[in-house]
């Protein structure tokens, strides 16, 4: 048990924490007044690796990173999509290398990481973006789909980060971006496996950030991204009556910007933070009632997902 002296010291630290909170809030306010272009970091010549770069927001982020002067590496299980990303980046004068890798295979991740280090160099920016969705009720979800969801949406983050973080630490700089989802903060019908994997992705980033700070690796930044529905095709058939639907170009741009600005948490739309607060304070019964009223319970009724030829 803490004695009186320790409790006194703790109270003092809490008061300092309160002052620090006010300072951070003022800092955030001042920063919003400074245009983003003055606050972005320079990534010219950096090596940026994007998983799932063969389509959707992954491809768009590859294009944007290359446009900012980064040497881009895209990893995807879809070879044709991956090569199309390289074509689009190179066409605009950027540099991009594609590696076909199945993120469900931990050994393939490690061996491809070794190849990237030998053939391209040490990774400065890692964007864990690849994702899959099953879109079925738990009892209809085949075990293999649940395992695949966890393999791609969260376990692969462990393997890629373990493969590249050491180099970042030894150079004292780097950035790890976790593409989670609003489904990593809020539940949604027919997404038990998907939401669980995204909640885990949010936890991965939160805890990694804390660990890096505790170990003194302050040069390595992390960003977690939680967007609502995006029209990439991944969630084809998803219906959103009361929540905004985001354009892939907007999301990709905001994610790259969040990384360039060292923003730790990106919620899209930004107003999602209000929902988070409500989620914390409202009783569970009210939250379930609201899910019904806002039709979240039926948003996956017509889900078809990404078709093979998309
Ligand atoms: N589309 C949305 O509504 C939405 C909303 C919030 C978050 N997200 C998240 O954003 C990320 C990108 O999604 P998107 O909408 O661009 O989807 P997308 O389907 O266009 O892209 C996902 C990419 O991941 C790749 N991939 C899947 N399994 C893989 C594996 N085993 N190994 C390697 N690559 C694999 C796919 O081939 C594809 O290129 C995902 O993590 C997704 O969960 C999407």
Automatic annotation (TrEMBL):
The family database entries (SUPFAM superfamilies) matched by this protein are listed as:
NAD(P)-binding Rossmann-fold domains
**Has UniProt tagged this entry with the keyword Magnesium?**
no
> So where does this one cross the membrane?
12-34
Organism listed in the record: Cherax quadricarinatus
Q: Does the keyword Iron apply?
A: no
Superkingdom, natural source: Eukaryota
Q: Which GO terms describe its cellular component?
A: lipid droplet
Question: What family does the database annotate?
Answer: Belongs to the short-chain dehydrogenases/reductases (SDR) family.
In Swiss-Prot or TrEMBL terms, this protein is called Epidermal retinol dehydrogenase 2
| Record InterPro entries | NAD(P)-bd_dom_sf, SDR_fam
Keyword entries, A-Z: Membrane, NAD, Oxidoreductase, Transmembrane, Transmembrane helix
Signal peptide from the UniProt entry: none
The family database entries (PANTHER family) matched by this protein are listed as:
FI23927P1-RELATED (PTHR24322:SF748), PKSB (PTHR24322)
* GO function terms (MF aspect): oxidoreductase activity, acting on the CH-OH group of donors, NAD or NADP as acceptor
């Amino acid at each position: 048990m803490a004695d009186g002296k320790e409790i006194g010291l703790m109270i003092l630290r809490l008061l300092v924490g309160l002052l620090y909170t006010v300072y951070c809030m003022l800092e955030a306010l001042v920063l919003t007044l400074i245009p983003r272009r003055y606050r972005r970091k320079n990534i010219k010549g950096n090596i940026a690796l994007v998983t799932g770069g063969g389509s959707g927001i992954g491809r768009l982020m590859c294009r944007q990173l290359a446009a900012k002067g980064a040497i881009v590496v895209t990893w995807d299980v879809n070879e044709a999509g991956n090569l199309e990303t390289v074509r689009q980046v190179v066409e605009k004068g950027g540099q991009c290398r594609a590696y076909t890798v199945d993120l469900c295979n931990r050994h393939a991740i490690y061996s491809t990481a070794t190849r990237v280090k030998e053939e391209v160099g040490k990774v400065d920016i890692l964007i864990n973006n690849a994702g899959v969705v099953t879109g079925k009720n738990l009892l209809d979800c085949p075990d293999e789909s649940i395992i695949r969801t966890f393999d791609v949406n969260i376990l692969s983050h462990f393997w890629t980060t373990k493969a590249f973080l050491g180099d970042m630490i030894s150079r004292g700089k780097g950035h790890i971006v976790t593409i989670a989802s609003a489904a990593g903060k809020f539940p949604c019908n027919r997404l038990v496996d998907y939401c669980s994997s995204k909640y885990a992705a949010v936890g991965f980033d939160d805890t990694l950030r804390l660990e890096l700070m505790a170990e003194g690796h302050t040069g390595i930044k992390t960003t977690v991204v939680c967007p609502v529905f995006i029209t990439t095709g991944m969630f084809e058939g998803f219906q959103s009556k009361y929540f905004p639907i985001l354009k892939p170009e907007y999301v990709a741009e905001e994610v790259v910007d969040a990384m360039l600005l060292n923003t730790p948490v990106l919620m899209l739309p930004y107003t999602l933070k209000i929902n988070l607060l409500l989620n914390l304070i409202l009783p569970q019964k009210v939250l379930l009632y609201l899910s019904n009223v806002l039709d979240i319970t039926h948003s996956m009724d017509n889900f078809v997902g990404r078709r093979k030829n998309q």
